[in-house]
Design goal:
heterodimer; A: alpha/beta; Rossmann fold; 2 domains; seven-stranded mixed sheet; six-stranded mixed sheet; 14 helices; 16 strands; 40% helix; B: alpha/beta; eight-stranded mixed sheet; binds thiamine diphosphate
Chain lengths: 394, 310
Amino acid sequence: MAEITVLAATGNAMVAEAFRQAAPDVLAAYPITPQTAIVENFAKYVADGRVHTEFVAVESEHSAMSACIGASAAGARVATATSSQGLALMYEELHIASGMRLPIVMANANRALSAPINIHGDHSDVMGARDTGWIILFAETAQEAYDNSVIAFRIAEHPQVQLPVMTTLDGFITTHAMERSELLDDTTVAAYVGAYTPEHPLLNGQTKAAHGMFASLGGTYFEIKKAERAAIDASMPHIKAAGEAWAAICGREFAPVDAWECEDADYILVVLGSAAGNARVVARELRAQGIKAGVARIRVYRPFPFEELAQVLAGARAVGILDRSDSFGAQYGPVGLDVRSALYGAGLLIPTRDYIYGLGGADVTLDVLRQAYGELQALAAGELDQSLSYLGTR
Amino acid sequence: MANIKQLSETRERLVGGHRLCGGCGASVAVRQVLLGAGADTEVVVGSATGCLEVSTTALPYSSWDTSFIHNAFENAAATISGVEAAYKGLKAAGKIAQDKIIKFVAFGGDGGTYDIGLQSLSGALERGHDFVYVCYDNNAYMNTGIQRSSATPHYSWATTAEVGAALPGKPQRRKDLTSIVAAHHIPYVAQASIGNWKDLVEKSEKAFNTPGPAFLNVLAPCPRGWRYTGEMTIEVARLAFKTKFWPLYEVADGVWSMKEVREKDLLPIEEFLRVQGRFKHLFEPENEHLRALLQAEVDEYYDYIRERCR
Ligand SMILES: Cc1ncc(C[n+]2csc(CCOP(=O)(O)OP(=O)(O)O)c2C)c(N)n1
């Protein structure tokens, strides 16, 4: 039986605990607000001798991911954490980690990107990484940041997956706010995560391994990239299996799309991360007034759960997508583009509106969410078009 | 150190069949360096993007009879530092036997080392990983077509330091990378050349046998980029030494020492410049003063190193 310790803990503290319990052989990281506490807490575990991990305090995020790639290719279990400019600085390496099929686990404290510089929570950083071949999980709470971070190792290292996993939590709102969180005991987590057996490590002494080879003209490159897509497409059942196995231990449900009161909903907001709670508060309020509102929260963002989402949204009269970043020049923000594509693919021509909200940590008040649900009613009634708009700004 | 006969019988870790040019200095540098690693020692090789990497790792083949990793252009040092950290972490986890010895070496060109990879190198040196970093310095970005780097000599031609009515080649002096690395106060730093194989293999042995970070800056002439024919590579490297263009020295535990050019071997810088097309314009009558300037610069650098070696 799992032993549970109830803590008042921040999301960062919970991610650090998950990393400690997964016991990576190498953790290479660089400080950046609002991720820093993850690395600081971990450095303390190292100093206290609570982990065997080789902690590499690198001189930049580019080197953090470079060292993680070297370590993972060598055959180590590897973790790191970053945020914002740090994730952007890693961009080149993110593609290399996935292209080399290295099961690195990285926590990202979701934060705005410069310019102008801003340290607060939004999804601009992680959305820039959405096409890099990483599996991407979004947490709503500190508890879920812990759960996702534990699950991440099991997904990444699964022999049929072998892809890096990014486990994300919203800057400050989730990284720094203290919440009631349950920590499972070390033995239970270690048993759940299991031992990692790399397939082609540089350091195995028997055969030689070659990583990061040159694939020029002639199709090998194309084939490898095609295989990479096949791998991430095929990862969804493994993600679900890992999530459900964890749910069976901790008692918290796992679904790629966390649907709240969507079965009979006329108006659904699609959301990622910490804003889901406020969306549910408003939806509950509307339901009390007889308006059928629902919330569909995407927990697994890559691979995109397009089938699950289309099922959840199928009965809605209007769908609003909350985008905490922009895809400048595109029709919608990144999540909006994904959601619309999922609807179209399922033959659902439900009217949608895309809402850019909360950039640079701007407050996501109940009022702005009331506004969004109000507009969805007008949209369903044909009184509004399907354009992109903004919540909570001039 | 083993004698030349023994070395010639030592197993090669960069094997034949790679696609580097005939006369390429980089391949000679790699082979000489790896001779210093010890015939029976397990070695993991890392390489930055560049001529060496693209020519030795074209799928589905590898020319490396070792475990090998390439990551990107600017991060060979950070990458090998991760491999070395994994070795320590896996030992701590009991997954690698305590008495197992593996050596780590990263190769980068001058572009990947003096320029874009300098930060990654500096970080890995400062952190004290147990590895050898080898810069094969061919004085330019050769893989992408002979663009200037901060290792390209003053007044040399390069495709981004053109020669014309307004400019006589590269307007800046070379960066003194070896001294920059020495300023990290790591256990072992050396400047070597493929023209002096014995000196190079000895330095490589020291680098591999020194715990902690070690750095070798190895002059590796490039026939394509320097504009001479391939059979002259070793001769050009020797001229670099004899004309003081490339002083051979080491800094072992903070002690500087130098292999001086014998008085009778000393040659003017012209002898090095003359055999290379990249300096052809310096032999136009109006550029005579530039040759004099170059002579002054190599003298100054040589004396500066000699002063530190006293
Ligand atoms: C970030 C990045 N910038 C530029 C390049 C293009 N590039 C590949 S190799 C190379 C030059 C390599 O020069 P050097 O390090 O001197 O090695 P050489 O080719 O001379 O062996 C360049 C510019 C790259 N691969 N990555």
